[in-house]
Design a protein that fits this description.
The chain contains 9 helices and 5 strands, in the order βαβαβααααβαβαα. By secondary structure, it is of the alpha/beta class. The chain has a single domain, classed as Alpha/Beta hydrolase fold, catalytic domain (Rossmann fold, 3-Layer(aba) Sandwich). Helix 3 runs antiparallel to helix 6. The chain starts with a strand and ends with a helix. The model has no long low-confidence stretch (mean pLDDT about 95).
């Protein structure tokens, strides 16, 4: 079976999820020791593409799912399966995505990563994971966090859907503030297997006992 490549969410590079013990975990630009790049999902995909194996299964959460979607659309001969965990096709309008380049740098300065970390941790329903979420986000370089959030605000994955050839498993959190009916309907139209769970955006951390067996079975059925 070909390699599994897992892509982390914004500021969550130090955390692991999923049932894949031997998965590869590329570090997205601006996270940990990875250099920064242009704050766009396409540029993040460009940065990690050279390190990918010839044939892969891609799995990504949030920003990592956006990057995985771009890669799967590009690598149609190399990607055997795609798993997306609460990955928005674009940010909801109430988040004012077009204003991201102006508002994100302000948010990263004030209240700053430590306060943002506590907000995200509060939305993590698995209480045991909250300290790790706080630690990961707090340790992220402000410039890297700003870049990642700006990349999310600029992303629109809808034009990519018809370019996918790999089977897709789309896993969503019912209480997520970032995904919903739009993703369910859009992925359903391309024949993706879509499942919704009684949790929020931090799905892979909140419901591992539910999502991990599904992910493993999905990849085993698409070797």
């Amino acid at each position: 079976m070909s390699a599994v490549v897992c892509l982390h969410g914004a500021a969550l590079a130090s955390l692991r999820w999923g049932p894949f013990d031997e998965a590869l975990w590329p570090v997205l630009p601006g996270h940990l020791d990875a250099p920064r790049t242009t704050p766009s999902v396409a540029a993040y995909a460009d940065a990690i593409l050279p390190g990918l194996p010839d044939r892969v299964a891609l799995a990504g959460h949030s920003l990592g799912g956006m990057v995985a979607l771009v890669l799967a659309a590009r690598l149609r001969e190399r990607c055997r399966a795609l798993i997306l965990l609460d990955t928005p096709l674009s940010l909801p309008r109430w988040l004012l995505p077009r204003a991201g380049t102006r508002t994100v740098p302000v948010l990263v300065r004030v209240p700053g990563p430590p306060i943002l970390a506590r907000i995200v941790a509060h939305r993590t329903e698995n209480r045991e994971m909250r300290p790790a979420v706080v630690a990961s986000i707090s340790a992220t370089r402000p410039a890297g966090l700003s870049d990642a959030l700006i990349a999310c605000t600029r992303f629109d994955g809808r034009p990519l859907l018809n370019r996918l050839t790999a089977p897709v498993l789309c896993l969503l959190g019912r209480r997520s503030l970032l995904t919903g009916r739009r993703e369910t309907e859009a992925f359903g139209r391309i024949g993706a297997e879509t499942r919704t769970f009684d949790t929020g955006h931090m799905l892979p951390f909140d419901a591992p006992d539910e999502v991990n067996p599904l992910m493993r079975a999905f990849l085993e059925s698409h070797p």
